[in-house]
UniProtKB/TrEMBL annotation:
This is TenA family protein. The lineage of its organism: Bacteria, Bacillati, Actinomycetota, Actinomycetes, Mycobacteriales. PANTHER family: BIFUNCTIONAL TH2 PROTEIN (PTHR43198), SI:CH1073-67J19.1-RELATED (PTHR43198:SF2). It comes from the Bacteria. SUPFAM superfamilies: Heme oxygenase-like (SSF48613). It holds the Pfam family TENA_THI-4. It comes from Rhodococcoides yunnanense.
Length: 240
């Protein structure tokens, strides 16, 4: 699918990226990601991440579907709907990794962590109640930051894969640095640029706020895989 090309030479998405610089630097410094790229992340932490990401993707699909329904053009609606379908495929890939035997088994039923529930609730509420441009900006960090992380960790992942072609961590990193995924990210950015071009000044300010808030949730979500925050008075020890 070829997205509509924004005529504005100054991309609004560049403003979003700049506004989240401090958050993105903190993401790049996360111990979770450093260990993931090196292939030395504890197996239980990677399992926790996959379980939480599977729960997150379920909520993300709802957000993208709401966004697709509210899109101003059929092309934009088709793109967000396709992204929702891709997120479902991603969840299926997670499930295959969780049940493939390379990770520790677990009989506990995962429940959303505070970071996961907060993130999905924010995205769903934004997609359902805020103007389309604001909702589009809110869902963008999940595309863009994942691609940025995959690109930054790709070289480390390649080294790991050279020694162990079946290493699950390196395969995960390689998937998010794939050209096909970056093409989807570029398309998402263009649709957000187009939304900004049609938005009011107040809506553009809200778009920046939404992008930064979602980026903060990305930081919290990544970090909680290695440093989980249990729910107060939790009855299970899933996140202990």
């Amino acid at each position: 699918m070829t997205p509509v090309v924004s005529a504005d030479p100054v991309r609004f998405t560049d403003l979003l990226w700049d506004a989240s610089e401090n958050v993105r630097r903190a993401i790049d410094d996360l111990e979770f990601l450093r260990l993931l790229g090196a292939g030395t992340l504890p197996l239980d932490a990677f399992r926790r991440y996959l379980e939480q990401d599977s729960l997150y993707l379920s909520g993300y699909v709802k957000s993208l579907s709401l966004l697709a329904a509210r899109a101003p053009t059929p092309i934009a609606g088709a793109f967000w709907a396709s992204a929702a379908a891709s997120a479902m495929d991603e969840a299926s890939s997670h499930e295959a990794m969780l049940t493939g035997g390379s990770l520790p088994s677990s009989t506990a039923t995962p429940e959303p962590s505070p970071a996961c529930l907060g993130y999905t609730s924010y995205l769903t509420a934004t997609a359902a109640t805020e103007p389309y441009p604001v909702a589009a900006a809110a869902v963008l960090p999940c595309f863009w930051i994942y691609a940025d992380v995959g690109r930054s960790l790709a070289e480390a992942a390649k080294t790991v894969l050279d020694h162990d072609p079946d290493h699950p961590y390196a395969r995960w990193v390689a998937a998010y640095d794939a050209p096909e995924f970056h093409a989807i990210v570029d398309a998402a950015k263009t649709f957000v640029d187009d939304a900004a071009a049609a938005a009011t000044l107040d809506q553009r300010e809200q778009m920046i706020d939404a992008f930064v808030v979602a980026s903060r949730y990305e930081l919290m979500f990544w970090d909680s895989a290695l440093h989980p925050t249990p729910w107060p008075l939790a009855e299970s020890a899933v996140y202990a």
